[in-house]
Design goal:
about 220 residues; alpha+beta; Beta-Lactamase; 5-stranded antiparallel β-sheet; elongated
Amino acid sequence: MNRVEVFIISKDQGTMMLKYSILGMDDRERDELTSSFLTALNKFAKEINLDIGNPDGVSLLRSVNRDVLFSSGKYIFTVLMINHQLHFQSENVPILSRMAIDIEELFENKYRLSLERASKTNLYNTDEYEPFKPDIDDIINRLGAETLEMYQNHILIESVFLKVPTRLCMPLMERVAAGENVLDDFAEIIKKYPQMKVAIEKVNYQNQIIWEIFAIPTYIL
């Protein structure tokens, strides 16, 4: 089962200020252990000057069945932890990076005074940050529209590689760029060019975790 979680952790004390499960169930004991592990990993990365990932400031660490994206602010670091059965494709890293950055920046802006005070006293009232969870949902929803565009374009590009005529795919790409959802148009193309099914199956499978995170209505064959 795929599990996607957001951890917001104080940089000074390593306190888990907020944990939010996008996919999967909460497990308090496991969450505390994970938070401690992430804090230690973040310190280790800084000690060896580790800078893995993208130029936008997010570090990406990958293992066999887990991807971890770090976004570090002044008072906190935000971690997007993705446990999965299949790695997402590298072209999807930027949108996940933006998600991590947006969460970190919004949290620090919203709770700046509280974070400044806590950094001096080393006392955190974690209940204060629970209302931030709907803000994470808002960020996911905002990026979801962009992800739906990406999903449709992936299918159309793969379809062109599989010899579905460009004259059919290009107009749909233009409509997608204009903000339209063209998934309902695929059925007519599939009737004449069934190889489009292969493109759909490939895109659905290779980036399944991305579509789940952003609640993309994948095309059902």
